[in-house]
Design a protein that fits this description.
single chain; mainly beta; five-stranded antiparallel sheet; 1 helix; 9% helix
């Protein structure tokens, strides 16, 4: 049986594939949780919406859990 992934909002996660931005970062910040998951590239700040199944499939590991809300401004 698969173990339950313990990710929460504002966690920093590492994905299997890098974002095709100029920094090629594979670190993302979880911004929204629900049926779809919204993540933000930590390299360029772009937002990506993924279905929960696609997100869990491409998740490599959880880097850090955040206890406090992070304010994101562009």
């Amino acid at each position: 049986m698969k173990e339950k992934l313990d990710y929460q909002i504002y966690d920093i996660v590492e994905m299997k594939k890098a974002h095709p931005c100029f920094k090629r970062s594979n670190l993302f910040l979880i911004v929204r949780l629900g049926a779809d998951i919204k993540i933000m590239c930590l390299g360029c700040g772009a937002y990506i919406m993924l279905e929960r199944f696609s997100f869990e499939k491409s998740l490599r590991k959880i880097i850090r859990h955040e206890n406090e809300k992070i304010i994101i401004s562009k």
